[in-house]
Please model this.
Amino acid sequence: MPHSLPYKNELKIAMEAADIASNIILDYRNSKAFDIELKGKNDLVTDADVASEKAIISHISKQFPNDSFLAEETSNELSLPKGRVWIIDPIDGTTNFAHGFPVFCVSIALWENGQPIVGLVKEVAKGELFYATKGGGAWLGEQRLNVSKLTDPSQSLLGTGFPYTSFTYVDEYLSLFKSLMQSTHGIRRPGAASYDLCCVAAGRFDGFFELGLSPWDVAAGALIILEAGGSLTDWGKGDNWLFGKQIIGGNETMVQFLQQQIDTHFYKLNT
Ligand code: IPD
Ligand code: CA
Ligand code: CA
Model:
């Protein structure tokens, strides 16, 4: 980690928590001894999710006993508590994890008074560690990250998430994908939104959009994009991407391009 980063202590504790959680997740993966339950249609949770979340909260709360938590498997809150709150996805990419497909992450963010100040995403199988602190830039290990500078969407590679729990907008999606397939280099769906956002920060994706995400999916990756010089918006050109369940990320030109595409094919959403 670079020596002079702001919020260095919080980042260090987040890194330790991510390491502890990654080891737990890998133990479950290697032993294949985990139970899978359904929280809703196609919405999986495993023992590894629960154990990872418990370990992360336990490690962080020992160091910062006055901070609060918004974590996928234990929180029902639909707003941010005042003060400092850690927003945690103990496994982002549970469907991948459960099927043995190697893109699943631990996502840990610290927000203070409505602003992200620390974001960390660790892709567990490959061990890639993405992180950012407010004002301290975005990093992949020791490497500084910058979003892509591409301004020609026809040369872009996009990331997204396909709907799998609710199919209300499946026709709109298909029409959007048809258009994007024909006007870009392609679309990828790795299966973990936190990783997708980091791929934007790293310039691997030129843009990302998804509908239906929760705060723990985006809280860390969003800061990593912002600190890599990127832009974020919800699908109505606003800034309600943490709780609003809609996000677009990329450089400004790509965000505008994706916004226009979404406006055209998802016109029902905002009417
Ligand atoms: C999911 C992943 C996926 C996205 C879903 C999320 P989970 O998170 O980020 O890529 O498409 O909307 O719910 O359930 O694996 O933590
Ligand atoms: Ca998630
Ligand atoms: Ca999860």
User: Anything to note?
Assistant: The first helix runs from residue 8 to 31.
